[in-house]
Design a protein that fits this description.
Helix content is about 25%, strand content about 35%. It is α+β, with helices and mostly antiparallel strands and about 725 residues long. The protein has five domains: about 10-210 and about 250-275, P-loop containing nucleotide triphosphate hydrolases (Rossmann fold, 3-Layer(aba) Sandwich); about 285-380, Translation factors (Elongation Factor Tu (Ef-tu), domain 3), CATH 2.40.30; about 400-470, Alpha-Beta Plaits (2-Layer Sandwich); about 475-615, 2-Layer Sandwich (Ribosomal Protein S5, domain 2); about 620-700, Alpha-Beta Plaits, CATH 3.30.70.240. Helix 6 (about 200-220) crosses helix 7 (about 220-230) and helix 6 crosses helix 8. The longest helix is centred in the first third of the chain and has 20 residues, at about 200-220.
């Protein structure tokens, strides 16, 4: 492979819904780039990108595949991202290192929910998009539908560079309004001839060209003035305006493809060479906010955006050279912890094919084997460099509990899950002390099932997935007081401590006037301790003891006892929160009062007061946004009602309705599966924690009964 400078590199990510043909397009691009001499197919399980057993068996991409092609003296680094929203992590990784996205639209379906989801993700990461309508050779291809759905979804940003001739089974070419040529294809290997535009298409071509030129002019004030004066642009000005408009995200050029027949692939790649941004001069931010320009004349820094374990190779780390010139044998370090790494050999990569290279320049993408600590989302750099901003992965939307079939495999399962999570940051693993469960979270049931498949097949572990417990919280709604005396005599040593306390909700301004034992009492605060609890909410602790009834030195012990009780609330064993505690009286013994006595007394007095203070169970509420075709709005709303969901509002994005709702977490187990079933797989959703709110009375009664039964069973 030749040594490519930064300006001659194009980093592109292939995006689109499942079945849009991304993998087929990547094969065609590699074929045109002379990386392969025969294109594989998903059906034959011989593609370069989908090369794992799971992907080939299920005919579904689950990993982002890094590929390269050499075309027109340009190196294309191509990342084939998974098409399912369940595996969106692969696309998000790619956004970190790619300057351009090619978003495929299935000609038989038009713009789908997944298409818009990927467009939204690309916008979030400021990755400009080129649209490509693929599968125009399919017998059910519908150009008019695809055209209209693109205009509806992307509005005036969509700029049609091409339009097809005879879409459907007879598709064999397209009109290109940049070149003003009819490209007629002679075989299924990209062989083409350039012809004059047939008369019946001339007016449409001219109209689209003028519309495209106007969009190009709008990208730059100087060009716009020129266009307004002369109503035209030179070819150089036209190209400049297009490039600027694409980079700003103001123009989304639309191309025609049949990746299967290699129709339109060369034109798409040619356009990327001319109009897509190279990494040269792009700016990346460090964790501290410092801006680092991508250029060769700079210290070496790389960013690892993907890791995998590959057959016969072991751990493989995929990276982008963010600055400088990386040479084999380079010694770099992680700026966040100082851990050093030697990159003894570096490779250009095309799926399972790895080509050793002596050097990779700023902006290029490659891989390295067997780093000691080269995990996803890590910077390695020369001394003096800072770590780059971490990848912002989407929030999980599916959670389950997981345990090994054999209890003796718990440690082995934990180690395996940690290795998977290091490779796939969207697979989140945590052991909940509160729930006493290992919780596995991901982007959907398919994602979680894939993790299970890996545990079964790669790590030889049998595991069980089941419904997780809900992390409820407990609090109080009223004022209550209680007292507790702890007295224990054992031989010569004794324990004594008595605590009188009052509890109330930790809300509003601090009030210290209460009725205690039928008498109005003004408490005087001597000391206070306000704790922001690690599980959310707070505990306010006020020492109001007068007359030396309890030494100040015992107050930490009382507070400790209360906190111990709050870790396992009296109602359901859930964490307690948002409570004020006033210790106003008590007793101690000159000999027998010890710290342990006041821990116990504080814990038990708090428990009694809590039970009498209108205790309430709180449940986690999530903001849920459902993206669905309008035909399925009714079923989606009905289903949300059965889940105690509250629909806040709805709006329209392109061809889809977005339902904004608030739903209890307890009602969201396997929601992704239900939504897919309701909508034929055409809807998706996001979810994010909002707040804790009191459960309805009937739900609280049910939870209390379940907890009582559980305690009885444990006893």
């Amino acid at each position: 492979m030749k040594d490519y400078s930064t300006k001659d590199i194009r980093n592109v990510v292939l995006l689109g819904s499942s079945k849009s043909g991304k993998t087929t397009l990547s094969e065609a691009m590699l074929f045109e780039g002379k990386v392969i001499d025969r294109r594989g197919t998903v059906e034959d399980k011989n593609t370069v990108s989908d090369n794992t057993e799971f992907e080939q068996t299920n005919q579904k991409s689950v990993f982002a595949s890094a590929l390269y092609a050499e075309y027109l003296n340009t190196k294309f680094n191509i990342i084939d991202a998974p098409g399912s929203d369940d595996f969106v992590g692969g696309a998000v990784e790619a956004f970190k290192v790619c300057e351009t996205g090619i978003l495929l639209v299935n000609a038989t379906q038009g713009v789908e929910v997944g298409t818009e989801i990927f467009a939204r993700h690309a916008g979030r990461y400021n990755v400009p998009l080129i649209l490509a309508v693929n599968q125009l050779d399919h017998e059910k291809a519908n150009w008019d539908q695809a055209h209209d759905s693109i205009k509806s979804a992307f509005g005036n940003k969509a700029a049609f560079v091409q339009f097809p001739v005879n879409p459907g089974a007879g598709f064999e070419g397209f009109i290109d309004v940049l070149d003003m040529k009819y490209y007629h294809f002679l075989d299924a290997n990209g062989k083409r001839e350039e012809l004059e535009i047939p008369a019946q298409y001339a007016d449409e071509a001219e109209e689209l060209r003028m519309a495209l030129m106007e969009k190009a002019a709008e990208a730059d004030d100087e060009l716009m003035m020129k266009y307004l004066d002369e109503l035209t642009l030179s070819e150089e000005e036209f190209a400049k305006g297009l490039k600027l408009g694409i980079a700003k995200g103001e123009i989304m050029p639309v191309f025609c493809l049949s990746a299967k027949k290699d129709i339109g692939v060369k034109k798409l790649m040619e356009f990327c060479v001319k109009a897509a941004a190279s990494p040269e001069g792009t700016v990346n931010k460090t964790i501290s906010g410092k801006e680092v320009v991508c250029k060769e004349a700079a210290p070496v820094s790389i960013f690892i955006f993907k890791t995998s374990v590959e057959q016969h190779l072991g751990d493989v780390s995929y990276f982008k050279v963010m600055s400088g010139v990386l040479k084999e044998g380079a010694d770099l370090a992680n700026p966040e912890n100082g851990n050093g790494e030697r990159l003894s050999a570096i490779y250009a990569v095309a799926g399972s094919k790895k080509e050793k290279v002596p050097v990779l320049r700023a902006g290029d993408i490659g891989c390295v084997m067997k780093l000691k600590a080269g995990k996803t989302d890590v910077t390695l750099a020369e001394s003096g460099c800072e770590a780059y901003e971490h990848i912002q992965f989407p929030e999980p939307k599916y959670r389950c509990a997981i345990k090994p079939a054999d209890k003796n495999d718990e440690a082995k399962m934990g180690d395996a899950l940690n290795k998977i999570a290091a490779q796939d940051p969207t697979a989140i693993v945590e052991y909940s002390k509160e729930l006493r469960q290992t919780i596995l979270s991901g982007q959907g049931e398919q994602h979680i099932n894939f993790v299970k498949w890996r545990l079964n097949n790669e790590f030889k572990l049998n595991v069980e997935l089941y419904a997780p417990k809900v992390p409820y919280r407990e609090t109080i709604t009223k004022i209550a007081s209680a007292q507790y005396r702890h007295k224990k005599q054992s031989g010569g040593a004794g324990q004594f401590g008595e605590v009188h306390l009052l509890v109330c909700p930790a809300e509003g301004e601090l009030n210290t006037k209460f009725v205690i034992n039928g008498k109005e009492t003004q408490l005087n605060v001597k000391t206070q301790d306000i704790t922001e609890l690690e599980w959310g909410g707070k505990l306010e602790f006020y020492n109001c003891v007068v007359g030396g009834a309890i030494d100040l030195g015992f107050m930490p012990a009382i507070l400790k006892g209360i906190k111990e009780r709050m870790v396992e609330g009296p109602l359901t064993g859930s964490y307690a929160r948002d409570i004020r505690v006033f210790v106003y009286d008590g007793k101690m013994h000159p000999v027998d009062s010890k710290e342990i006595a006041f821990i116990i007394a504080g814990r038990n007095a708090f428990r009694e007061a809590f039970r009498n203070a209108g205790p309430k169970i709180l449940e986690p509420i999530y903001n849920v946004d459902i993206f669905t075709p309008s035909d399925y709005v009714g079923p989606c709303m009905s289903d949300l009602n059965t889940r105690r969901g509250m629909i806040m509002n709805q709006d329209v994005e392109g061809n889809f309705t977005v339902l904004h709702a608030r739903v209890p977490l307890a009602e969201l187990y396997r929601y992704s599966t239900t939504l897919s079933s309701l909508t034929g797989g055409s809807a998706t959703f996001t979810m994010k924690f909002a707040e804790y709110v009191p459960v309805p009375a009937d739900v609280q009664t049910k939870l209390l009964a379940e907890y009582a039964a559980q305690e009885q069973e444990e006893d």
